[in-house]
Each structure stands twice: as C-alpha cells, then as structure tokens.
Amino acid sequence: MSPRVETLLDTARSRLVRLTPEQAAHAVTYERALLVDTRPAADRERYGTIPGALVVDRNVLEWRLDPTSPHRLEQADDPRRTVIVFCNEGYASSLAAVSLRDLGLVNATDLIGGFHAWAAAGLPVTGTAPTVP
Question: Where does the Rhodanese domain lie (predicted)?
C-alpha cells in the first residue's frame, strides 16, 4: 500500500469505532444495526454473502443511505442508526464509512477485516461456499 493511501486510511479510521465480526453480528442481531455490503457482484457470487446484509453499490452508497435523500433506501430512516459497511478486506469500507459520517450518519462504521474476516470467524454466510484468500 502506498504511504499516501495508508495515511488516508489511518485518518479515516481515527474517526471510526470499527467493529470485529463478532461485534458486528451482535449489533445487527440486538441493536438494529444495518449491515451494508459494498462488494462487487462478482465477489458476492464467488465468496457468498452475509444473510440480511443490504447490498448497495459503492458508487451510489451516499445517495441510498442519506436519510435526507429522495433516493434513499427504506432502511435508511434514521441518521443515528448504526450502519456497518463492509467490503472484502476492510479497506474501502473504512473510507465509505467516513463518507457516510460526513453526511450525518453519526454511527456509521465498518467491519474490521471485511467479509473475509466474517467468514473466517465462522459467522453465517450464504451462497457460494466461502474461501478465505
């Protein structure tokens, strides 16, 4: 990773309370947190999906989750709701979560290690049998 990207990630992550897979699973089950999968379709097909995760393409994430947007998803109803973004390994999701925070989603965060960490932790995955690279 380039030093510039590493600095960008460090800065973004300093603004988040990132969650482990176990913490994220607990938040989704008991705290009404919204789990958001921003991975490309090819990765979801290859590795599987997390049951109950909302799939939102990264290029429309802000429009779909901003509670004030006329294009928001029904689930994006409360700017205080915990939104847990995940990608494959937890890099792009950190940047995405900070973008959501900048829109006013005060509890937006991401999943440490992304989908692959979730699968490696033995948490539920559907679809193609996951393989952790």
Answer: 29-127
- Quick check: 20 and 28 in contact, CB under 8 A? no
Instruction: Report residue 68's pLDDT band, with 50, 70 and 90 as the boundaries.
Output: very high
User: Is residue 35 classed as helix, strand or coil in its secondary structure?
Assistant: strand
Phi, psi for 121 (deg, rounded to 5): -80, -5
Which residues lie across from 55 on neighbouring strands? Answer: 37
Provide the domain limits for residue 62.
Answer: 3-120
For residue 127, tell me if it sits in a domain: no
The Cα–Cα gap between 64 and 92 comes to 17
Does pTM surpass 0.85? yes
**Residue 67 and residue 70: Cα distance in Å, rounded?**
8
CATH number at residue 37: 3.40.250.10
N-to-C CA span, the chain: 18
At 7, list the tokens.
């600095």
